[in-house]
């Protein structure tokens, strides 16, 4: 049998997350993402995904100290960051700098190093691209507060909480394309850094992590509510995909999109823009349901991720990289799960040539 894109094929067993695509539910290790967002912070959930249980306060402190201790960039990475041509995207730079790191002997130490260093790489490179002074990590701030601080130079607890909710909701999501890439690489008994490099390259594509900036482009093209229908119809006529809609697994509302939408309603900034996003969602779903009634196309997490990041005034150039800064946790947890119960991935190809 041949299953293009491996649609419907189960390739691994995992204890990390469960996606109920028909009912729009997502749990990490048995806990709903809504409960996780309400009760735990980034570091606690990263620990929970990597270890399988929540840390007590001593274990959390050790974990947080290890993360803080790995935020700083070694001099050679600083050199790479400033030497890569300025026109290269942040995802290119992230892929290159991460691949320059040597995996540590202990896989969890490597995971902590990668989770901790990614925000610093993203923020430093972004500020270099914008000709701004680079901001060093602040050890007094938690993971997400420090990330926003390194990007913007400001400490803003309310914004950090909003970004943290997004990062928690996107940390882990089953066997998505980038996670699969990480698992394929580690299944050859390669190391965690190589697995994460594969994942970052896969994340970059517009059908996966590259979608949020496409959502911004879409909304900028629409510009006003009266043009929504025309723009969407034209795109569909030209066989274009509407960015931020559709999902391989969810055939109803993506619970992460719904949760982010609720957060957006509480925001005060950019109300006009948010109104346009909400209206565009409504009109587009109606059009898609009419023109593609069997496809069950709704907004995915990327749609409202774009709205959240725009509201936080984060540059669209950063979106895919910020997504990678959360999904790194899921990548590492999956790679470790694969390593602990490994069978090399080696599917078949049906020859159809001469
Ligand atoms: N806009 C218009 N039509 C769509 C869309 C969309 N966004 N998504 C799917 N379809 C249609 C396809 O054209 C196809 O229709 P057809 O059978 O009439 O040709 C049908 O739905 C099935 O499409 P597939 O590509 O087979 O569906 P799949 O499950 O493989 O696609 C994907 C999932 C890649 C996410 C797709 O919905 C898409 O391209 N969406 C836009 C990009 C996007 O938002 N990506 C972010 C996904 S979330 C994430 O990765 C974190």
UniProtKB/TrEMBL annotation:
SUPFAM superfamilies: Citrate synthase. Pathway: Carbohydrate metabolism; tricarboxylic acid cycle. One of its GO terms (cellular component) is cytosol. The active site is at 247, 302. It comes from the Bacteria. InterPro entries: Citrate_synth-like_lrg_a-sub (IPR016142), Citrate_synth-like_sm_a-sub (IPR016143), Citrate_synthase (IPR002020), Citrate_synthase_AS (IPR019810), Citrate_synthase_bac-typ (IPR024176), Citrate_synthase_sf (IPR036969). CDD domains: BsCS-I_like (cd06109). Coiled coil: none annotated. GO terms for molecular function: citrate synthase activity. Keywords: Acyltransferase, Transferase. It catalyses: oxaloacetate + acetyl-CoA + H2O = citrate + CoA + H(+). GO terms for biological process: carbohydrate metabolic process; tricarboxylic acid cycle. Belongs to the citrate synthase family. This is Citrate synthase. The lineage of its organism: Bacteria, Bacillati, Bacillota, Bacilli, Bacillales.
């Amino acid at each position: 049998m041949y299953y293009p894109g491996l649609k419907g094929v189960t390739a691994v067993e995992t204890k990390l997350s469960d996606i109920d695509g028909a009912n729009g539910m997502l749990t990490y290790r048995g806990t709903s993402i809504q409960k996780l967002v309400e009760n735990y912070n980034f570091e606690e959930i990263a620990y929970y995904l990597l270890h399988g249980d929540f840390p007590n306060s001593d274990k959390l402190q050790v974990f947080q100290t290890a993360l803080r201790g790995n935020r700083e960039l070694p001099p050679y990475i600083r050199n790479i960051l400033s030497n890569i041509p300025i026109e290269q995207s942040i995802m290119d730079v992230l892929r290159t700098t991460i691949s320059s790191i040597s995996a540590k002997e202990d896989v969890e130490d490597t995971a902590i190093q990668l989770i901790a260093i990614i925000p610093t790489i993203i923020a430093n490179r972004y500020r270099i691209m914008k000709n701004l002074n680079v901001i060093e990590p602040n050890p007094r701030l938690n993971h997400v507060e420090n990330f926003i601080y390194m990007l913007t130079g400001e400490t803003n607890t309310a914004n950090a909480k909003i970004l943290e909710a997004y990062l928690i909701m996107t940390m882990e999501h089953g066997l998505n394309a980038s996670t699969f890439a990480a698992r394929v690489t580690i299944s050859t008994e390669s190391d965690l850094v190589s697995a994460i490099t594969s994942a970052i390259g896969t994340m970059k594509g517009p059908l996966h992590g590259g979608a949020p900036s496409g959502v911004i482009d879409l909304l900028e093209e629409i510009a006003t509510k009266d043009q929504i229908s025309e723009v969407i119809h034209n795109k569909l006529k030209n066989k274009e995909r509407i960015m931020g809609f559709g999902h391989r697994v969810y055939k109803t509302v993506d619970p992460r999109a719904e949760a982010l939408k609720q957060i957006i309603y509480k925001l005060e900034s950019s109300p006009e823009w948010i109104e346009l996003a909400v209206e565009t969602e409504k009109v587009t779903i109606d059009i898609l349901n009419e023109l593609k009634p069997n496809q069950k196309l709704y907004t995915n997490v990327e749609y409202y991720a774009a709205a959240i990041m725009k509201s936080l005034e984060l540059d669209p150039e950063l979106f895919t990289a910020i997504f990678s800064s959360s999904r790194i946790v899921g990548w590492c947890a999956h790679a470790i799960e694969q390593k602990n119960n490994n069978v090399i991935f080696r599917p078949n190809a049906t020859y159809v040539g001469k």
